[in-house]
Amino acid sequence: MATIRCVVVTPEKTELDVQADSLTVPLYDGEIGILPGRAPMVGRLGFGLMKVKQGASESSHYVDGGFVQVRREAVYVLTDRMLKPDSIDKTHAAADLEKALALVASSPETFAMKDRAVSQARAKIRL
Amino acid sequence: MANIRLLDKRRKSIKNIRKITRTMELIATARFKKAMDRASAASDYTNLITAIVQDLAKSGTEVSHPLLQSRETVKAAEMLLLTSNRGLCGGYDGSVLRLALQRRNEIAATISDSSMSVSGKRGISALKFRGIPLEKTFTQFDDAPAFDEVAKIADDLMERFITGKIDRVDVVYTKFMTVSKQVAVVETLLPISNLAIEAKKSKPNATSLTANESTDSKLKDDYEFLPSAESILEEVVPAAFRARVFKCFLDAAVSEQIARMVAMKSATENAGDIIKQLSRTFNRARQSKITQEIMEIIGGVEALG
Asked: What is the ipTM of this complex?
């Protein structure tokens, strides 16, 4: 069965470089599943769980925004940080959400910033 | 005549100094290797981001973003200065500070409102001594700057730039060229002017991640952009900016360790030279003392006979 090379890169280092059967990543506006042989694509990532399926085992990681690029040779996931889902502190995330909701958005730019902070905190709580 | 005991004491203390500087050199070497590994691990991300920017440009998307627009009148400028937390690293901080102050004077001539942010205790104390007000100070960056911390600074700069509180951001740091060459440079971070120039530069030294792409690069890939090319651009520009600021910090960390290594190497060598010189003076003094004593004895014997 064909496999797909999946590479996760953060600004600090290459976190993951594996051959997988399929992977699912959270896009900006919904999840996307990627199988071997996917047509080239660049997608904007949202906040949420990335699932990598290798045979019978499936591993999931939290990704914090970024991009996914599907190329001929591999799928590259560029994200600011990749965390284990159970390492995320939900009470902390709830506090972040409150802080984000309290932001005052007076221009399109600040509105985008607020929106980003809110959705990031919500994604963490949702895990 | 030189005091023999004093000379010996001095030689011993210099031997101790040599031991210390040699140890510091070894520590700096180990840290340099670590910092270097981090810096090369980080280059994958930069290469991939640039690849996305290039693909966006190839697809015919117009590259425009608030961070890319230069303001007609620059009213407020911010300067970020990267120095070290610890001393004993030769001219590392000195050259960065000299350049920063020179730049500050240039800016002051045209722009009324200029502020400075400094990372590193050495830079903070040097500027405080000169009575220059500092906007923000950071001391948490050592030989391994964490991306999360750098991203906070980058986000803050971006926010202030977009909301119009500042119109330009410069960074002064020591750029790592090769292991034997590091230079203090001033670079304009915001507005971002050279997304494309950086892309050209990073092409020849593509790492293993992008190396295997050369075989099928002749085939033109038609990328699908989700949700849209504009939306990706909106996100890619800040990401590229953060990566760039992070690279500045990594470069500074590597350069600092190299500077310390070189400084400690020459200090060790210098201590060796001084020990040699002191040993010679010490031996000469001892010999002349012995000669003098013999002369005295002979004189005494002759006087008796």
From this structure: 0.84
Mean pLDDT per block of 10 residues along chain B (305 residues) reads 83 96 95 92 88 82 79 86 91 92 88 87 92 89 87 90 88 91 89 58 42 47 82 86 91 93 95 95 93 94 88
pLDDT attached to residue B200: 39
| Cβ <8 Å between B242 and A28 | no
Q: Residue B232: which of A9, A67, A76 has the nearest Cβ?
A: A67
- CB–CB contact B209 A7 (8 Å): yes
Which pLDDT belongs to residue B279?
A: 94
Contacts of B49 in chain A (CB under 8 A): 78
**pLDDT confidence of residue B226:** 82
pLDDT in tens, A34-52: 999 889 999 999 898 999 9
3-class SS of residue B288: helix
Pull the structure tokens for residue A52: 């990598």
In 3D space, the residue among B258, B270, B239 whose CA is nearest the CA of residue A45 turns out to be B239
Contacts for A80 with CB less than 8 Å, ≥ 6 apart: A10, A11, A64, A65, A66, B147, B151, B239, B242
**Which chain A residues touch B66 with a CB distance below 8 Å?**
109
H-state helical runs in A13-107: 90-101
B163–A110: do the CB atoms touch at under 8 Å?
yes
Domains of chain B, first to last: 4-29+263-293 (1.10.287), 32-212+221-259 (3.40.1380.10)
Q: CATH: 2.60.40.1120, 1.20.1250.20, 2.60.15.10, 3.40.50.720. Which one for A4-83? A: 2.60.15.10
Q: Do A50 and A28 meet the contact criterion of CB atoms below 8 Å apart?
A: no
Task: Judge: A7–B66 Cβ closer than 8 Å, yes or no.
Answer: no
Smallest CA–CA distance, residue B81 to chain A, in Å, is: 21
Q: What is the DSSP letter of B89?
A: S
Half-sphere exposure of B31 (CA within 13 A, CB side): 21
* Per-residue model confidence as pLDDT tens digits over B87-118: 898 889 999 999 999 999 888 888 878 888 99
Beta strands in chain B (DSSP E): 76-82, 113-119, 136-138, 168-178, 181-190, 224-226
Q: Which of residues 7-46 of B touch A (CB under 8 A)?
A: 38, 41-42, 44-45
Which structure tokens are listed for B286?
């001892």
| B40: nearest CA partner in chain A | A13
CA distance A60 to B187: 40
Alpha helices in A1-127 (DSSP H): 90-101, 108-126
Cβ–Cβ under 8 Å, residues B185 and B175:
yes
